[in-house]
Amino acid sequence: MPFKLNQDRRHHIPRQTHKVTNWPAYEAGLRQRGSLTVWFTDEAIEAWAAKPRSTRGRQPWYSSLAILTALTLRAVFRLAFRQTEGLIGSIMGLLGLTLRVPDHTTLSRRSATLDVPRPSRPSVGAHGEAEPLHLLVDSTGLKLCRPGEWLVEKHGTRTRRSWRKLHIGLDAETGQNVAASLTAKEVDDGAEVGPLLDQVDGAVASFTAAGGYDQDSVSAAVVKRDPEAAIIVPPRVTAVPSATAETAPTQRDCHIQHIAEHGRMAWQRVSGYTRRALVEVAIARWKQV
Fold first, then answer.
1. Residue 119 domain-assigned?
2. For residues 232 and 255, what is the distance between their CA atoms, to the nearest angstrom?
3. pTM assigned to the model
4. Is residue 228 part of a domain?
5. Domain that residue 93 falls in
6. pLDDT tens-digit series, residues 192-236
7. Is 278 in the same domain as 139?
8. Whole-angstrom Cα distance, residue 144 to residue 163?
9. Cβ distance 180 to 167 under 8 Å?
10. φ and ψ at residue 261, rounded to 5 degrees
11. Does some domain include residue 118?
12. In a domain, 116, yes or no
């Protein structure tokens, strides 16, 4: 929520306290976070070695499954190729398996032709239908650092900084970035809603964004993409209902009416706008990485 809307009563908000009463279960849960269990199924053991090839060329020793297993562990634990080779070898020794361990040069060579699969959101519901996602959209500025950036900080010289703007679309259920675009700093946030929606696979159940996206072009782009999608964008403080608010109210008119009757905080809880904090956390996490 913007700071100015909560500034007059910020000192009245008490700090949240969490009282833990089930210490044994709480400590067991904390220990469980660090546990690691690895096992190889019989099918994976049989498919570890590569199948004999019928074409000309050298016979590979490891199948794509073996290389993908090693590359996945490398991506999860952020290891180099040599450390990945040692990890796979230690796992084989702990499990008592006699499988070959791919060396680091093989992993480096095969990684150029294989893509490590990323976990995807559940796309099928309980009845077999595709589940639409809840899209959270936000943008952030990025400063481009040049080779002389250290000299500028060291000697205090002035130079013109270059900025870019990153627009991302986040899946509220899984926390994955499903859409992204990089533009110049002059590009308006609402102008990138259409390109972000084009990158999303499947239907969109709701579109949630900050007050800067309170534009007719944004609503038109979302409705054109998915007419049944809920547009959860807070109207501006000076917003007024449309001319058809009495006969055919839009989603924005309903938001304005609810805020006028119950307040902005109540509207945030009812509409689900509070989930927009997830995209801000994702931006902070991305910048930290």
1. no
2. 8
3. 0.60
4. yes
5. 42-110
6. 999 999 998 888 999 999 999 999 999 999 999 999 999 999 998
7. yes
8. 6
9. yes
10. -90, -40
11. no
12. no
What 3 state SS string does 163-215 have?
A: EEEEEEEEECCCCCEEEEEEEECCCCHHHHHHHHHHCCCCCEEEEECCHHHCC
CATH number assigned to the domain comprising residue 233: 3.30.420
SS3 category, 118: coil
Identify the pLDDT of residue 161: 63
Residue 259 tokens read as: 């805020």
What is the DSSP pairing of strand 162-171 with strand 177-184?
A: antiparallel
Q: How many CB atoms lie within 10 A of CB 192?
A: 25
What are the tokens at 282? 């994702």
Spatial neighbors of 206 by CB under 8 A, at least 6 apart, are 134, 135, 172, 229, 230, 231, 232, 272
User: Over 70: is that where the pLDDT of 9 sits?
Assistant: no
How is residue 65 written in tokens?
């499954």
Residue 171 shares a structural domain with residue 261: yes
Alpha-carbon distance of 68 to 111, in angstroms, equals: 8
3-state secondary structure of 265: helix
The count of other CB atoms within 10 Å of the CB of residue 262 is: 12
* Percent of the chain's residues with pLDDT above 90: 40
96 and 224 co-located in one domain: no
The two structure tokens encoding residue 138: 């936000």
3-state secondary structure of 143: strand
158 and 81, same structural domain? no
